[in-house]
Amino acid sequence: MLFETAAREYMDDKARRLRACTLAGYESALALHVLPRWGGVELESIAPEDVQAWVDGFELPGAAEKAYKTLRQVVRWAIRRLGVRMYDPTAAGVELPRKAARRPRTMEAGQVRSYLRALWGHECEAVAICSVTLGLRRGEACGLKWSDIDLRTGEVRVRRSRQVVHGHEVVEAPKTERSARSCWLPRFAVRRLRALRRGRSGWLCELSPDAVARRIRSACRRAGAAWTSMTECRHTWATLAVEAGVGIETVAMMLGHTDIGTAYEHYIVPRPRICKDAQREVERLLLNG
């Protein structure tokens, strides 16, 4: 069986199972990197050393990783679902190029205050408040409706995600089972959202997620205020929570992660204050214990 045949059947199958944005990622990786190299190759003839040479030829480590994982997905699916009898060439320990360490651009507490002041009265303010005070994914924040927020208790029910896929807006279920969750707003955010609602219904902001992100950035730039992307507002909340003494297990729960390790590995920025506070506690134990 040719790889391109397996890939086509794989995508047909996954179109019924995957979220639209996830499917778009696989489509992109196949079209740009995987099919040009492997499309006309028989699955059974793909050798580990050929896969390694292909991976080594990428200039961007991130592109190499995405392309390799897509290749691996199709191969393993073909073995499992189509009954292709072959050795899995991706099981031989292919080494991916090392990606440069990336530190999220998070905001300090004072910068978050500046960010929110810049958006006071802005059409995207309600989305920005929920994004930066709850650590929501961009699609989750843009997917909130006023009916999802209990302005008496501060509970926010995350039930959907609004995404832009191939230029079109789609509404889909949250990323994982744990992503469908309830979060609770801080009191100042509840008070401000009460003032903003004033009988409104529907989406917190009618603009598309891409437009929301652009307008928030423009408003902060005009005001000379701190700004970071909505994705990194999520990192900001997680880091501020740990800095305030919140346990990592609670942070992971609020973020909707399936395990604590994801929050620790990808979302917590090791700020000096966090480390110094930890050392003060250890010092107190050592000297006074």
Automatic annotation (TrEMBL):
Matching entries from PROSITE patterns are given as: CB, TYR_RECOMBINASE
Q: Its domain of life?
A: Bacteria
Could you state one GO biological process linked to this protein?
Answer: DNA recombination
- The entry's keywords: DNA integration, DNA recombination, DNA-binding
Q: Which InterPro entries match?
A: CB, DNA_brk_join_enz, Integrase-like_cat_sf, Integrase_catalytic, Integrase_recombinase_N, Integrase_SAM-like_N, Phage_Integrase
- Pfam families tied to this protein: Phage_int_SAM_3, Phage_integrase
Segments spanning the bilayer are none
Q: Where is the Core-binding (CB) domain?
A: 1-79
Q: Which GO terms describe its molecular function?
A: DNA binding
Query: Start and end of every Tyr recombinase domain?
Result: 102-284
Q: Which Gene3D superfamilies match?
A: 1.10.150.130, Intergrase catalytic core
Family assignment from sequence similarity: Belongs to the 'phage' integrase family.
Q: Could you tell me what this protein is called?
A: Integrase
* Annotated source species: Parolsenella catena
